[in-house]
Specification:
Blueprint (H helix, E strand, L loop, with lengths): L2 E3 L4 H13 L3 E3 L5 E4 L6 H14 L2 E8 L4 E8 L6 H14 L8 E6 L9 H6 L4 E6 L4 E9 L3 E11 L6 E11 L3 E6 L5
Parallel strand pairs: 5-6
Antiparallel strand pairs: 1-3, 2-3, 4-5, 7-8, 7-11, 8-9, 9-10
Length: 196
């Protein structure tokens, strides 16, 4: 419910407006007295903070949170070592629903695992898929498929292999080439899906 302040002095109104705007609140004056309304807003940061402990306790990490203008929220998560379970998605849905009352601000919520056919969005995805085959689309053109052989905060390495002839040998031998890429130097990187 609105908070009524019984003093309509100009300086008091300006002070209240400034103080509330610093806290992300909306100020509406409807004659006298001054009426102040808190602006309710669900943000990706607030959602991430709400589920952070659950993710850490269950070996999960956050990939992305998307919020449309209609408050359709999609939370994408990933497991550090295995697959995301249905129970994980249900638990996160309940945690968010308990923290953000739909009667206060209406929204729809979808909790899902990050798709294997989707490009990596966070560093933890690169770390999880280290040692597996990925496809890199390089800025300026070109695709590279190889093993994601090393990952750090600034860059990652792709190892590609080919069979080459060696002088004095009848058999071809495998030759590995390691190439480093920076994250801002590529358009995308995603796992190579192989169907058995």
């Amino acid at each position: 419910s609105p908070i009524f302040i019984g003093n309509n002095l100009f300086l008091w109104q300006k002070f209240c407006s400034f103080a509330l705007e610093l806290k992300g609140l909306r100020v509406t004056a409807r004659g006298c007295p001054l009426v102040l309304f808190a602006k309710i807003m669900i943000t990706a940061q607030a959602l991430g903070n709400t589920i952070a402990n659950y993710l850490d306790d269950n070996g999960l990490f956050l990939v992305d949170i998307e919020i449309t203008k209609d408050n359709d929220i999609t939370v994408s998560i990933e497991s550090r070592e295995s697959d995301v379970k249905i129970d994980n998605c249900i638990d996160i849905d309940r945690i968010i629903a308990a923290e953000f009352d739909r009667d206060v601000e209406d929204y729809s919520l979808t909790v899902t695992s990050a798709g294997l056919d989707q490009p990596f969005k966070v560093l933890d995805q690169y770390r999880k898929f280290a040692g597996t085959e990925v496809e890199v689309v390089v800025k300026g053109g070109g695709k590279v498929k190889g093993i994601l052989s090393a990952v750090n905060e600034e860059s990652f390495e792709i190892t590609t292999s080919k069979m080459v002839k060696v002088e004095g040998s009848k058999k071809k031998v495998q030759q590995d080439t390691v190439t480093a890429y920076t994250y801002d130097g590529i358009k995308s990187c995603k796992p190579v899906i192989k169907f058995k």
